[in-house]
Amino acid sequence: MSAPEAASLLRMAGGATVFTGAGMSTESGLPDFRSAAGLWAGVDPIAVASRRTLERRPEVFYDFYRKRLHHLGGAAPNIGHHALVAMERAGWVKAVVTQNVDGLHQAAGSRRVIELHGNLRESVCIGCGDLGHAAQLRAAIEAGGLPRCLSCGGLLKPNVVLFDELLPEAPWQAAVRSARASRLMLVVGSSLQVTPAAYLPLETLEAGGRLIIVNREPTPYDDRAAITIRASAGSVLTEIAALLGQDAAAGAQK
Fold first, then answer.
1. Structural domain of 44
2. What is the pLDDT of residues 103-117, one digit of tens each?
3. Taking the CA atoms of the chain, what radius of gyration do you get in angstroms?
4. What are phi and psi of 130, to 5 degrees?
5. 82 is catalytic
């Protein structure tokens, strides 16, 4: 299957909810999770990125997130992010639902972004729940200390969903509503293995909608998708945008 067929399906559907995963951001220099060079290569994620580890072995937790925040510091939106912005401005993208926590969709200019797993732009106190900017957390862990809340002294964590935490209810319900209301879901760069986020394509399918999947590797939904494309997110989205009359470079203009 090809980008022209995907563009044709978008035209017929009148637009799509876009669902993105780590493969959306690899072209911005951020590692994915499950590849040979991914974040979980040789690492037990529960041992380094869980709430239990934060509370019982905070030095291990913060060492892992020091590396994540370092990667994020030099990342910028790629051409795929900008293509989605251009398509959103033209009405082809109704919402972007993302598993990513890097904030690159917003940095590119996407307006309606639903972050299922939180974001690395903020910190949250595990004691009192106060939100703050991630810069405080980053400065503390880079100095080798434990980041503490200025209000109650509790530990700060990145405002992301850890392995033993539930998804926040509000973004999850917003994502379900968008998936159910869409005649088409465009999945980009997600392995569709992490639940409950991976159930969202089912919401579209069960409501009578269709799927387009753009991912380098197979997913559990490939046999139910109308179109599957094995290629990089940036190249495919740029081509789809162009076929819909949108210049991805225009998405970079603020």
1. 33-74+120-160
2. 999 999 999 999 999
3. 18
4. -65, 140
5. no
